[in-house]
Amino acid sequence: MKVLGIFGSPRRGGNTEVLLEEVLKGAEREGAKTDRIYLTDYAITPCKECHGCDQTGQCVILDDMEKIYPKLLESDIIFLASPIFFYGVTAWAKALIDRSQALWAKKYLLKDPSLGKEGRKRKGFFISVGATKGQKVFEGAILTAKYFFDTFNAEYAGELLFRGVDGKGDILKHPEALQQAFEVGRKLVKEMIHNPS
Ligand SMILES: Cc1cc2nc3c(=O)[nH]c(=O)nc-3n(C[C@H](O)[C@H](O)[C@H](O)COP(=O)(O)O)c2cc1C
User: Fold this and answer.
1) What residue's CA is closest to ligand 1, atom 20?
2) Which atom of ligand 1 is nearest to the CA of 134?
3) Ligand 1 environment, Cβ below 6 A
């Protein structure tokens, strides 16, 4: 069982990083092999909307995203963690998400069977925090995450969201949140072991 964690915050040691780390520890507890992508370590050019991928399913931009496509496709469960920046995911996460347009083209334009109904099934889960307590603070980011996961056949498995969390490491003041994160990691891996598709 391969589990990938994508860390979308530019703040190392921040709230989403703490949460995702707990999730991955929970997954490891159930025997999963985990891989971590800290997006600040990767140079990802935003999508140029050149439609170069329409005919090939391959992005024409040659940069660190080339290292990430195979990781997405090799993984059984993908966790995307991003704080809310202006009611969406961070620009770091959005650059990666927009570049998944190449996978969207492969799936929906080229009808590649590996991303079709018979292809490998994956699960995607979104983790986020926001400083405010607004009702709609996560709405945009959840939709973005759902459509991102869909490009590589990752069924949306849910989200872990915390409002009113702002300062670096403030999430540590909520031990129940860390426990919840750990359990999410365990639960998803266990479910996938017992219901392989
Ligand atoms: C550029 C920027 C934009 C932000 N926009 C929002 C926002 O729209 N809504 C909100 O609730 N919090 C917003 N925040 C606060 C962050 O979501 C919050 O500080 C979060 O805890 C950061 O998580 P991290 O430690 O994982 O980076 C913003 C922060 C920054 C730096």
Assistant:
1) 166
2) 11
3) 9, 11, 14-17, 83-87, 129-132, 137, 165-166, 168
Parse the chain into domains and list their residue ranges.
2-194
Q: How far apart are the first and last CA of the chain?
A: 12
171 vs 159: CA distance, rounded Å: 16
Tell the CATH topology of 2-194: Rossmann fold (3.40.50)
Cα(84) to ligand 1 centroid in Å equals: 5
From CA 11, how far away is CA 23, in angstroms rounded? 18
Give the 3-state secondary structure percentages of the chain, helix then strand then coil, rounded to 5. 45, 20, 40
Q: How many CA atoms lie within 13 A of 6 on its CB side?
A: 32
Amino acid, single-letter form, for residue 22: E
Tokens of 55: 């005919």
114 contacts: CB under 8 Å, gap ≥ 6 = 73, 120
Helix (H) or strand (E) holding 28: helix 15-29
Q: What is the pLDDT of residues 124-142, one digit of tens each?
A: 999 999 999 999 999 999 9
Protein residue closest via CA to atom 31 of ligand 1: 85
**What pTM was estimated for this model as a whole?**
0.98
| Overall residue count recorded for the chain in this entry | 197
Task: Read off the pLDDT of residues 148-180 as tens digits, 9 standing for 90 and up.
Answer: 999 999 999 999 999 999 999 999 999 999 999
Q: Using alpha carbons, list the distances in angstroms from residue 75 to 4, 8, 169.
A: 6, 18, 28
